Amino acid sequence: MAAVIRAIRNRWRSDSGAEFVEFAMAFPLLVLIVMGILDFGIMFQQYEVITNAAREGARIAVLPDYRSSDVTARVNQYINASFLSTGGSVSVSGPTVTTAPITGTTSCISLATVTVTYPHQFIWVGGIMRYFGGGAAWGTKTLTASSTMRTEIAAGSCS
């Protein structure tokens, strides 16, 4: 009888299978980290696209004889060429024209600002975080980029 008890105790103290338990505990965290890196990489790529789209729109806005509809068309053209339009709707505001004084003179230059916003939808992290109680904070993030450029119209008086 003592030999049977000793065999049972040795069996319970055995380390076989411990790797599988450790792997089962560490794997979900590893998946969350890898998917988070992918999700934030996609978000950064989308942010770069809307930053460049705002720059393209501002470049059109500073040229003479262009209208705001031309700015919006150029921004949307850039966004569509980058395949970003499939994820959500892009919002373009501007161009907003402001004046800025030139230091040491009485002249002012005109500046055109174009702002582009895009809703980024978290693909993997949002779904994973819902299992852990992280709700709407991981659903959608609004990305905003703006670009300001000097108009190509000659500087005028500040009035």
Q: Topology, please?
A:
Elements: H1 2-12, H2 18-61, H3 68-81, E1 91-101, E2 107-121, H4 125-131, E3 140-150, E4 156-157
Antiparallel strand pairs: 1-2, 2-3, 2-4
Helix pairs in contact: 2-3
Concise description?
The chain is built from four helices and four strands. Strands 1, 2, 3 and 4 form a four-stranded antiparallel sheet that branches.
Describe this structure in words.
There is one protein chain. The chain is α+β, with helices and mostly antiparallel strands and 159 residues long. It has helices spanning 2-12, 18-61, 68-81, 125-131, and strands spanning 91-101, 107-121, 140-150, 156-157. It has one domain (17-157). The chain is 48% helix and 25% strand. Strands 1, 2, 3 and 4 form a four-stranded antiparallel beta sheet that branches. Strand 1 (91-101) and strand 2 form a beta hairpin. Helix 2 packs antiparallel against helix 3 (68-81).
Radius of gyration: 28 Å
Number of helices: 4
State which percent range the strand residues make up. Answer: 15-25%
Which secondary-structure class do the elements indicate? alpha+beta
Features of the shown structure:
single chain; 159 residues; alpha+beta; four-stranded antiparallel beta sheet; 4 helices; rod-shaped
